[in-house]
Amino acid sequence: MTGRGAHQARIRSSNLSHHPLVAIVDDDPGVSGSIASLLRSAGLASERFSYGGDLVDRGALAEFCCVISDLHMEGMDGKALQLELIRLGWAGPFIVITAFPNDSEREQMMSKGAYAFVTKPIDPDGFLDLVEKAVG
Amino acid sequence: MGIGAGPDDWRIAMRLGMAMLLALGIFALDVLSPLQGAVAVLYVVVILLVAREQRRSLVVFFAVLCATMAMAGYLVSHGLDAIGSPTMRLGVSLVAIAITAALSARQITAAEARHHSDERYRLIFDASGFPIWESDWSPAYKLLRAGETPTLELVQRAGSAAIIRNANQEVARLFGYADRSELVGANIIEHHTISAEAAQARIFERLLRGDVPIEEEMQFRTTSGELIDVVLRVTLPQDHNGWSRVLVTALDVTQRNRDQARLAESQAELTHMSRVTTLGQLAASIAHEVNQPLSAIITYAKSGQRWLKREAQDAPETADCLDHIVINGKRAADVIARIRDLARNGDPRREAVRMAPLIEETAELLQRDMIASGVRINVALATDMPSVLGDHVQLQQVLLNLMMNAQQAMASTPTPDRELRIDGGVRDGVLVVEVSDCGAGFGDTEPEDFFRPFFTTKRDGMGMGLSICRSIIEQHGGKLTASGNEKGGASFTFRLPITEDEGRIAA
Predict the structure, then answer these.
(1) What is the set of domains in chain A, with CATH numbers?
(2) Global pTM exceeds 0.90
(3) Which residue of B has its CA nearest to A31?
(4) Mutate which of B294, B297, B303 to disrupt the A interface (most A C-beta within 10 Å)?
(5) Which of residues 319-338 of B touch A (CB under 8 A)?
């Protein structure tokens, strides 16, 4: 299901190839799927990844105008992904979403230039505003 | 002794002089008297007098002297006459002198042996380092023999009549006296507590049955009013003579009992803390797990509302349903948030935690349990183990959990192989601690599955332990992972960021 969902998202995104893409990185397909649907409803195309490493491996980071990433994941977690993107020279808005907020991690990631640190469950209206503002 | 002659030496010299005079008197009587009797037999008195000095050499010396004098007297009176009745009398006298001397010498030897044994006994008594005293409990013996039962009332009556015959300095120290002389001739009834009297009654009862040696723990009150816990051991010597000589040794166990109580207290505290933390973590863990699908539900419902406006504006019932899904989803999220706040009440502390002592302390805590299940703990920590920023109790809980898991994982491992290793050090700038067992490892299961909530391999396990451990480590900004090890067992490794204060702490 996840694979097909991601595939569909990619097809859609290719239809809207002139639009900038939002990357959603979360190992919970329910979370990433719901955010993708929400963004689509506002005309924002997105691509979903289960792991931070998948996004990095995909390459062509310049296509993404925004990255929404979970904090705690297997392998490359949100923090490591943020650092890796900085290292690769990607400088777009990085939005952290987490069901396990913690002050020191919030401070750490914000100081490294994260755009926002959002606690799950997200407030969809507020979140959409946030992403639209980030995408510009 | 040598040069400065004390009054004793004078007395001895005087007594010996008297004996000498007596010998001379007997000699004179023997030579000068016309009596046809065995006067020389009287030398026996001289030897008996000398024997009172308890010195074998003196007895031998005087025996030889007296025999010589007897023979000299014979020669003076009778010359070298033919053997006759005077010769017989001399012979009888000499035999009497010899026998008396021999008996005296033997008595002296026996007395010396007894003296040595008494000395040894006194030395043991005085220098044992344990409180020892010898009591006269004959009043109690008489009362009990007369058919009385060992009640508290009897203990009080008999106790006040009992007398301490002898006590070493340790007894004085135990009860708070300056010197043991204060105890000799007294009794210890004023040091009794209720528990001591009850124990004393039991001692009487068992003593009466001949059930020796007896050990009883009881409490005494010292002269300063302090309560002390003492184990008494009561023995009856063979010649106790109706309990008039009872040997009592005491072992002061006050400190031991206090330490035990403190240990039990801190263990109970730890268990309680651990339970509270577990509950808190359980709530936090559930909140975490539930928030994920809740987030999806609310977002999907909200997204659905937006799509509905675009795709089917004339579906008011569906829109209403989606509204209610959002409202109820948020309600559920509020409940979860409240639980999480509650869990956070025992807010994890953020302080520099020194890992090396924490690991050693935790290993120490489990040591007894591990020994009981035949597990050896092997702790190998780098000398430069740094501190981490976090909550001491939570991190200890992780260690306890991992170590207890390791212990249980080796339940079916042959006992000689049951080794639990804890390795600690710094790798790539983070603190790494690895807890390894020699159990059966993960088998076909993915190590990662062990961290899923409610995953368990134990019959009575809830499957939250590792999930909670992981969330604690993640809250500390670290990672907890599992892997198989070269011994076929499982290794759990956590990595924690080193506190930035480390430099300052070390400085």
Answers:
(1) 2-135 (3.40.50.2300)
(2) no
(3) B296
(4) B303
(5) 326, 329-330, 333
Q: What CA–CA distance (Å, rounded) separates A122 from B6?
A: 106
Pair of tokens at residue B53: 């000095």
A to B CB pairs, distance under 8 Å? 82
Interface ipTM > 0.95:
no
What is the rounded CA–CA span in Å between residue B156 and residue B146?
A: 17
Question: Which residues in chain A have their CB less than 8 angstroms from residue B294's CB?
Answer: 120-121
Would you call B448 an interface residue with chain A, using a CB distance cutoff of 8 Å? yes
Structure-block tokens of residue B139: 């009043």
CB B23 within 8 A of CB B62: yes
Ranked by mean pLDDT, the top range of A9-13, B105-109, B367-371 is B105-109
Token code pair at residue A121: 């469950």
In angstroms, the CA B15 to CA B19 distance is 6
Contact A102 B300 (CB under 8 A): no
CB-based contact A41 B475, cutoff 8 Å:
no
Domains of chain B, with CATH numbers?
7-127 (no CATH), 132-252 (3.30.450.20), 259-343 (1.10.287.130), 351-506 (3.30.565.10)
Alpha carbons within 13 A on the beta-carbon side of B483? 7
Please name the residue of chain A whose CA is at the shortest distance from the CA of residue B300. Answer: A34
**DSSP strand E in B205-355: where?**
214-221, 227-235, 246-252, 351-354
Task: Say whether residue B267 is in contact with chain A using an 8 A CB cutoff.
Answer: no
Q: Is the Cβ pair A122, B295 closer than 8 Å?
A: yes
- Please report residues of A whose CB lies closer than 8 A to that of B333: 121
Task: Quick: pLDDT tens for B53-95.
Answer: 888 888 999 999 999 998 888 888 877 776 778 888 888 889 9
What are residue B221's DSSP bridge partners?
Answer: B227
